[in-house]
Design goal:
With 162 residues, the protein is an all-alpha fold. Helices cover 75% and strands 2% of the residues.
Length: 162
């Protein structure tokens, strides 16, 4: 059965702009082991696969059985704004809209998502307040139009009496 471990490790090293030494330090591996994994001359231990999948926030199943570069490309093509943050996190990319680098830390991502959610709630509150003011002004306009019609009628009656 074919697996994608070597392809995916090579992709993650390249996508994160890591050298084999840096990648090895992250997972307590030497440069030779990383090279062997990338060249498909050796397979990482399960514990190593677990560390890699946890670090990059991908499933072990995807790490072993799927071409992650294609999975990430498809994910980027099909996901919404909130999920885009996660894809950017995995790929270590820069968000062109606000030029903010998304760190590898899930805590940082959670904080960013929480802040986004807080801003959404705040904006919804502001919109609701504006809607209420618009309703009040519409009601006032109706009242004024009604008063105008009443005054017109009074004016007609007054002119008719003269």
């Amino acid at each position: 059965m074919e697996n994608y471990i070597s392809l995916n490790i090579a992709y993650l090293v390249r996508k994160k702009n890591l050298g084999n030494d840096e990648f090895g330090r992250l997972f307590d591996l030497n440069r030779g082991s990383i090279a062997s994994y990338i060249d498909a001359k050796a397979q990482p231990k399960i514990a190593t696969l677990q560390k890699i999948s946890e670090y990059f926030d991908i499933s072990i199943d995807d790490l072993i059985n799927k071409d992650i570069s294609k999975v990430m490309q498809n994910a980027n093509n099909n996901i919404g704004n909130g999920q885009q943050i996660i894809a950017n996190h995995v790929q270590g990319s820069i968000n062109a809209d606000n030029r903010q680098y998304y760190s590898d830390s899930p805590d940082v991502l959670r904080a960013q998502i929480d802040e986004r959610d807080r801003l959404i709630v705040e904006k919804e509150k502001i919109l609701n307040e504006k809607d209420e003011r618009i309703r009040e002004k519409d009601e006032r306009i109706r009242e004024l139009l009604s008063e105008k019609e009443e005054l017109k009628e009074e004016l007609k009656e007054y002119k008719g009496k003269k």
